[in-house]
Design brief:
about 450 residues; Rossmann fold; Molybdenum Cofactor Biosythetic Enzyme, Chain A; 15 helices; 2 domains; about 35% helix; alpha/beta
Length: about 450
């Protein structure tokens, strides 16, 4: 076992699964703590993940649920256990509190220190002198100026300095290893100095592959002495992969598999991102059928069942005519007053999807086996309504949004193909690429 992780949402969890698989690390992502039977089916894996939804949860929920999950991960005795966050690090004292997760991890794992690695250059995310930057389209923005994340409906990022951002979530002292420290002849000296100052968590800058490689080397050398609990994005995974290759701990990376084309795909979107909105609009102008869902009606006890039934009938009609279908609750940002809670909306979308798939299996018409879910918060809750227990990597589509194979004790859903796409991921023609099987090579 090289590595275990918990993902604070499902889309980010598959992002790590992709990084591991493309590096040749056999891995599995469980969608809940695995039973011994389910675990035995993946005994060959050297990396194990558990997907969760703490990104949309309160600190009280974390205090109640994360200790058990972290204890399960600790039992695998991996050198590194990773609390995987979104690379945009959006969080707040009341929702998705990363500081609280750090505190719980410190209690369960008792590590020497807790590294925080947020930069993910492969996704266009950078940390310089402690400040987070994120790319949108062709532009890179400081996170508090980012056109989407600065106005996130639940956890807007208004503070670019991540040490200051975390100071509102935890009282643990946090120090910075900046780009100059990582480029020096001996980064270990800078780390020792930070730890001697009393820091219990260390934020790492990150600009490129060279920076990440320096971080991975430093962390793996410490993990070899005492297991580490680490917080951050899939950039952490990339940094470790570089070190594992250097040490010949993993084979040469296999060639990325090309996904097979399919005739039709089904898209379920609870995303409010302008990037997802552009993808929906592109698809609607290029042959996809669209069904707009009113999120308020879909989550209202008096209207939910009727709203879902109408949408299912419309979807089946479009699929019968050979069209791919997008069901969406927004085209870009909603106002706070019209934005339902991610767990309520995700649960409603999951129930709709489950019933829709069962309808497809019950009839003699088309059988759609590739489903795309959009939106980090909502996708996590959507998937949980399907009773799946694991995902594995199948093929590359776009960085951070791989094609995955589902495992379920219910044969209706076993071997379904899923893409869990965060709101900020993908080019305008992403849905068409996912249908045709072509992939994007750049963020």
């Amino acid at each position: 076992m090289l590595y275990t992780y918990y993902g604070d949402d499902f889309t980010g969890s598959t992002d790590v699964l992709e990084s591991l698989a493309l590096a040749g690390v056999e891995s599995v992502l469980f969608l809940r703590p695995p039973t011994p039977q389910h675990l035995a089916a993946f005994s060959h894996c050297r990396a194990i993940g558990i997907a969760g939804d703490s990104r949309s949860r309160t600190p009280e929920w974390m205090s109640s649920h994360l200790p058990k999950i972290f204890t399960t991960l600790k039992s695998f005795n991996a050198p590194i256990t990773h609390y995987k966050t979104c690379s945009t690090f959006d969080s707040s004292p009341t929702r998705g509190n990363i500081g609280r997760a750090i505190e719980i991890g410190r209690t369960i794992f008792a590590p020497e220190f807790i590294p925080i690695v947020v930069a993910a250059p492969h996704l266009g995310r950078y940390v310089l002198f402690g400040n987070l930057y994120a790319t949108a389209g062709d532009e890179t923005y400081r996170i508090d100026l980012h056109p989407t994340m600065s106005r996130h409906p639940v956890t807007p990022m208004t503070e670019p300095n991540l040490c200051k951002h975390l100071a509102a979530q935890t009282q643990l002292p946090i120090a910075l290893l900046d780009i100059r420290d990582l480029a020096s002849a001996n980064p270990e000296t800078a780390l020792d100095t930070a730890l001697q100052s009393g820091a219990q968590a260390i934020l790492f800058d990150g600009l490129d592959e060279t920076t990440l490689a320096a971080t991975g080397k430093l962390l793996w050398s410490h993990a070899a002495t005492k297991p580490l609990f680490v917080v951050g994005s899939s950039g952490l995974t990339e940094s470790l992969v570089a070190e594992w290759h250097t040490r010949n701990l993993i084979p040469a990376a296999p060639q990325a598999l090309q996904p097979n084309p399919v005739d039709q795909v089904l898209v379920i979107s609870g995303s409010c991102s302008p990037i997802t909105a552009a993808q929906i609009q592109w698809a609607l102008h290029n042959g996809f059928a669209g069904i707009s869902l009113d999120p308020e009606k879909l989550t209202h006890p008096d209207h939910a069942a009727t709203t879902a039934d109408i949408a299912i009938k419309q979807t089946l009609g479009y699929l019968d005519r050979g069209r791919s279908v997008i069901l969406y609750t927004a085209l870009g940002p909603l106002t706070i007053s019209t934005q339902p809670c991610g767990d309520q909306l995700g649960t409603a979308l999951g129930n709709l999807l489950r019933n829709l798939l069962r309808n497809l299996l019950a009839q003699s018409g088309p059988s759609v086996r590739r489903v795309i879910l959009c939106g980090g918060d909502t996708s996590s809750h959507t998937v949980q309504q399907l009773g799946l227990h694991a995902l594995t990597f199948s093929a590359k589509l776009a960085p951070g949004a791989p094609l995955c194979r589902a495992y379920s004790d219910d044969q209706s859903f076993h071997s379904l193909e899923f893409v869990l796409k965060g709101g900020q991921i993908g080019e305008p023609d992403f849905f068409s690429l996912a249908r045709s099987g072509r992939h994007q090579n750049t963020p």
